[in-house]
Amino acid sequence: MADTLDDYLARWAGADETRSAVRKTLVAIAGATAAISAIVADGPLAGALSATLGKGADGYDEQKELDVRADALLFEALKAAPVAAYASEEAELPVSVTAGAPLLVAIDPLDGSSNIDTDVTIGTIFSVLPAPAGVDPVSEAAFFQTGRSQLAAGYTVYGPHTALVLSVGEGTVHFVLDRKLGVYRLVAERVTIPAAAKEFAINMSNHRHWDDRLRLYIDDLLQGKDGPREVDYNMRWIASMVAEAHRIIIRGGIYLYPADTRAGYTQGRLRLVYEAFPIALLMEQAGAAATDGRTPILDLVPEKLHQRVPLIFGSREKVDRVSNYLTGPGEIAERSPLFGKRGLLTA
């Protein structure tokens, strides 16, 4: 029978004190996600999971019943882990868990909650950080660490089966929930994202709001074999970032959620600490990439706990090409609709 999550983490942690703390924290998170999975599987039988209870911490997103229940399960589970403070996308500020503990945890308890009542894949995204010396761990400032400071990160997707994908800095690892026994079992110890794929994910309804160079990139993809890419592409959009990430983990491609000109979207929409950092770590550890269009996501340092950021991730070749469109030579600008020209891009 395949190794369990705890088997894998026990081998990785050995007798190391910090790794052992990370192991306990990841096991606690995994236990909570198994409980969330059971609620999701029951759907309407578990209550009005998609009921809107109000607005989220920053006043923009709707907060659903399942958001709140997932958040409560995760917070309760972390009380048994060596975690000093818990930052949730559902709360304005971090909360204390265990005073003096060595770790911090940042979580998006329920990503894709607009899909709860449509039975579309949703998930949980998490990040584990060291509690910095000399900083109050319950302060926002404690979480203002570069993405490369993460000790572990991952997500759980609640779909036809429940999958847990995580990294402790030694590759990206894929587990699946054994529902009969309530444990996660290893299915792939070294995930490698394909370097090239013919799929892209973006919300095309926002085409008119994008930066001209990004719009040019998408327009080139849409031209398929008749355009500069000379390949026909398929487009995907689930409105659940964690589901898009899982598809890319399995078969490659690229995901784009850029900044645009709409109010509330000029700095991007996805949260750096809760969403972009964990996904970026998984991507890089699986041989892929994640950027804000110019800078690797993991090199960014948050200035606000709920800071939003443009996010582009997936197969490295694709992500690098987008960055070339956004920051590359002048010929790209000359091909934009603003200049009324079209030509071939070879980069």
TrEMBL record:
The keyword Iron does not apply. SUPFAM superfamilies: Carbohydrate phosphatase (SSF56655). Its cofactor is Mg(2+). Transmembrane segments: none annotated. It catalyses: beta-D-fructose 1,6-bisphosphate + H2O = beta-D-fructose 6-phosphate + phosphate. Mg(2+) 2 binds at D108, D111, E275. Pathway: Carbohydrate biosynthesis; Calvin cycle. PROSITE patterns: FBPASE (PS00124). Pfam families: FBPase (PF00316), FBPase_C (PF18913). It is found in: Cytoplasm. One of its GO terms (molecular function) is fructose 1,6-bisphosphate 1-phosphatase activity. Keywords: Carbohydrate metabolism, Cytoplasm, Hydrolase, Magnesium, Metal-binding. It is an enzyme of class 3 (hydrolase). Homotetramer. Belongs to the FBPase class 1 family. This is Fructose-1,6-bisphosphatase class 1. It comes from Rhodoplanes tepidamans (Rhodoplanes cryptolactis).
